[in-house]
Design goal:
The protein is α+β, with helices and mostly antiparallel strands. It has five domains: 30-164, Topoisomerase II, domain 5, CATH 3.90.199; 247-326, 2-Layer Sandwich (Gyrase A, domain 2), CATH 3.30.1360.40; 359-484, Topoisomerase, domain 3 (Orthogonal Bundle); 505-600, no CATH class; 602-747, Neuraminidase, CATH 2.120.10.90. It contains 18 helices and 34 strands. It starts with 13 loop residues before the first helix and ends in a 33-residue tail after the last strand.
Length: 747
């Protein structure tokens, strides 16, 4: 500090001082730590690691060296930060499950997908991969700028030449002050194809480029479940959210059993933590479809999921896991980078590829100029050699006799200072005739190359053609084989699999018993008591059987009541055992003045007729019979004094209606309108009484009814055929006196 500054105090507002210092810190974090450069896709620490390994001659074909040596050189020469942070960056560049295209080849324990850490740097060794060498290709040919290191004793590259599209191929993540970046990895072959397309068609849209770049290609594989519109929007803006799921398959076992094998999990998910998460949810009984989970991984990932039972649907099981665990993960895409002007920017796919191509164009220009300058220097020296070879005797005399041969040579042969210096440094063995021929051949070759470079520098089309050839070479080297094959499948928008409540119930056969006084229960298995054998089933005193229904625990029961409402119950929720069961009015809101007509399992694909005691009715879809609330759903509107009488499945082309006056009417089923709800239309006309029963049948089969233990059929129905709403005629002889067709239930 200068003497005149000692003891001087400057007052400054605290807010101004803090903001100034915090802004400096924020800019340092953004520019020198967190955001990658759009040209080579590297942060400073990664760039310094690669450059330091080049200085240590850790090329792909050389031997390995201790990571501690690499970290020490990086920290001492280029990166004045903690050694552990540098080593962690090195380790990540070597992990094949973290980097899609590793830049460092490691030897030793570099961690695993379980989340285990790498061994200490003194135990591990490393060297560069071919991809890292491609990033450095041409760095000695003045292709990039260099700057002084932090201590001023050395220099380091501002950016690497970057012959490999590293930014999009390997992606990047980082958190700065006020901004963050999260770029997913991609397939290098697809990126090269997109870059070649962009060279030919500079006005190509993001949608055009996405025909080549299908989407992210994560090192751990998985399945991307997003539609093309979502991908296009994300790559257009540089920001979006993408869902990645584990890859799984169903494996059949003996005796009808099966299990699910997971072979790939989402990117950046630790396998051990994932299994712990599933185990915790299993212990908390939050995954009722899953029986057990096992880790059978070796060098290949293999997680086995056992279902609760053989009746569990595999898609529904995986849907429940995707919803509750990290088997499905969202990757937040936020492509913040530092552009060529050292400005943080949010870029989409096309600007990123354009920036890489522009960088390769700049590298080609600088490399060509550097090579052209080197050729010019060499040609100048060759011209001098050729000039003196014409008179070697005079050259030898001047060198032997003159105290200062350089000016004499320059004057005698009209040489430049550079040419004279080169001649004086020439070895004696070069003074032979054969050497002159070699010099002339070299001169001709370099002259042709100089002309080629001049043409390249003057022709933009030729430059872009050269860049395209280089990109094709990169695609051939790194876009094929095992490392170049796409790992992540683009599956489009995943279908929504609703995990129904029935899926959490083990499917088994049961029999639902409804008593006359409204008590309901379920018994395991299927029972069919003989007629009049109510004594086989126990009821409360004075109560008896009203309805017996064989179904499964996963079925939804439909209850039709006299008030015209339908109610829904899950069969698996009914009380089980040999007791009296539970009052139906505790399960649904049914008034004391109302009663249940029937209980059945509705077919959503079928059609049903609802009819009132007054003989009005309509047809509706079976899907309309579902009611989510305890209050049910009002379908049949009733007038005072009327009740909902029956519900019948439409299963024929004709409908037979009989009233309490024992008049039978037959008419085509098509005459009954289909409605969602309402009073319906008149099925039959009555002077006194109302509707007794309805039956659907096919006219060609005839009308059948139950008489005692026999079934009677009438095929000649001409006397009873009429239009809907007619009065009808007395039924044929032999029709039951009860006035019913003998049909039990809505079927």
């Amino acid at each position: 500090m200068p003497d005149d500054h000692r003891g001087v105090v400057h007052d400054a507002p605290l807010a101004e001082a803090l903001s100034e210092r915090y802004l400096a810190y924020a800019l340092s974090t953004i520019m020198a730590r967190s955001l990658p450069d759009v040209r080579d896709g590297l942060k400073p620490v990664h760039r310094r690691l690669i450059y330091a390994m080049r200085q240590l001659k850790l090329d792909p074909g050389s031997g390995f060296k201790k990571c501690a040596r690499v970290v020490g050189d990086v920290m001492g020469k280029f990166h004045p930060h903690g050694d552990m942070s540098i080593y962690e960056a090195l380790v990540r560049l070597a992990q094949d499950f973290a980097s899609r295209y590793p830049l460092i080849e490691g030897q030793g324990n570099f961690g695993n997908i379980d989340g285990d850490n790498a061994a200490a740097m003194r135990y591990t060794e490393s060297r560069m991969t071919e991809i890292a060498s491609a990033l450095l290709d041409g760095i000695d040919e003045d292709t990039v700028d260099f700057r002084a290191t932090y201590d001023g004793e050395d220099s380091e590259p501002v950016v690497l030449p970057g012959a490999f599209p590293n930014l999009l191929a390997n992606g990047a993540t980082g958190i700065a002050v006020g901004m963050a970046t999260s770029i997913p990895p991609h397939n290098a072959g697809e990126l090269c194809d997109a870059a070649l397309h962009l060279i030919k068609h500079p006005a190509a849209s993001t949608d055009d480029l996405l025909r080549m770049v299908q989407g992210p290609d994560f090192p751990t594989g998985g399945v991307l479940v997003e539609d093309r519109a979502t991908l296009c929007a994300a790559y257009e803006t540089g920001r979006g959210s993408l869902r990645v799921r584990a890859r799984w398959s169903k494996s059949d076992l003996k005796h009808g059993m099966w299990h699910i094998v997971v072979t790939e999990i989402p990117y950046q998910v630790q396998k051990s933590r994932l299994i712990e998460q599933v185990a915790e949810l299993l212990a908390d009984k939050k995954l009722p479809l899953l029986g057990d989970i096992r880790d059978e991984s070796s060098d290949q990932l293999r997680i086995v999921l056992e279902p609760k039972g053989r009746t569990v649907d595999p898609d529904m099981l995986m849907a429940s896991l995707f919803r509750a665990t990290a088997f499905e993960q969202r990757f937040s895409m936020n492509m913040n980078v530092i552009d060529a002007d050292r400005t943080p920017r949010l870029l989409g796919l096309k600007p990123m590829l354009r920036a890489w191509l522009d960088h390769r164009h700049e590298v080609l220009l600088r490399r060509s100029r550097h090579r052209g300058a080197a050729i010019a220097r060499r040609l100048e020296i060759l011209d001098g050699y050729l000039a003196v070879f014409l008179n070697l005797d005079e050259l030898i005399r001047i060198i032997r006799t003159e105290d200062e041969p350089k000016p004499v040579l320059m004057a005698a042969f009209r040489l430049t200072e550079i040419q004279a210096e080169a001649i004086l440094n020439m070895r004696l063995r070069s003074l032979r005739r054969l050497e002159e021929m070699e010099l002339r051949a070299e001169h001709a070759k370099l002259t042709a190359e100089a002309a080629s470079l001049a043409a390249l520098l003057n022709d933009p089309a030729l430059r872009w053609s050269t860049i395209a050839a280089e990109i094709k070479t990169t695609r051939t080297r790194f876009g094929g084989g095992k490392i170049g094959a796409r790992r992540t499948t683009i599956d489009g928008a995943a279908p929504v699999v609703e995990v129904a409540a029935e899926a959490f119930i083990e499917r088994e056969a049961i029999t639902v018993i409804l008593s006359d006084k409204g008590w309901i229960r379920a018994i395991k298995g299927t029972i069919k008591p003989a007629p009049g054998a109510d004594s086989d089933l126990r009821f409360k005193e004075g109560d008896r059987l009203k309805s017996l229904l064989a179904c499964e625990t996963t079925d939804r029961l439909t209850l039709f009541a006299t008030n015209g409402r339908v109610y829904s119950l899950r069969a698996g929720d009914l009380p089980r055992g040999r007791g009296d069961g539970q009052a139906i009015r505790l399960l649904i809101e049914l008034g004391n003045e109302d009663d249940l007509r029937t209980l059945f399992v509705a077919d959503q694909a079928a059609k049903y007729l609802l009819a009132s005691s007054a003989g009005r009715g309509f047809i509706l879809s079976g899907a309309e019979l579902a009611a989510e609330k305890r209050t049910g759903k009002q379908l049949l509107s009733l007038k005072p004094g009327e009740e909902a009488l029956l519900i019948r499945r439409v299963s024929g082309d004709h409908c037979a209606v009989i009233g309490q006056n024992r008049k039978l009417l037959v008419f085509p089923s098509a005459q009954i309108p289909e409605m969602a709800k309402g009073q319906g239309v008149a099925l039959q006309k009555y002077k006194d009484g109302g509707l007794a029963d309805v039956k659907f049948f096919n006219h060609t089969d005839g009308l059948s009814w139950v008489l005692g233990e026999k079934i009677r059929t009438e095929t000649n129905l001409t006397p009873w055929l009429g239009a809907r709403g007619s009065a009808g005629k007395l039924p044929p002889s032999g029709f039951p006196r009860t006035g019913l067709f003998g049909i039990d239930g809505p079927g």
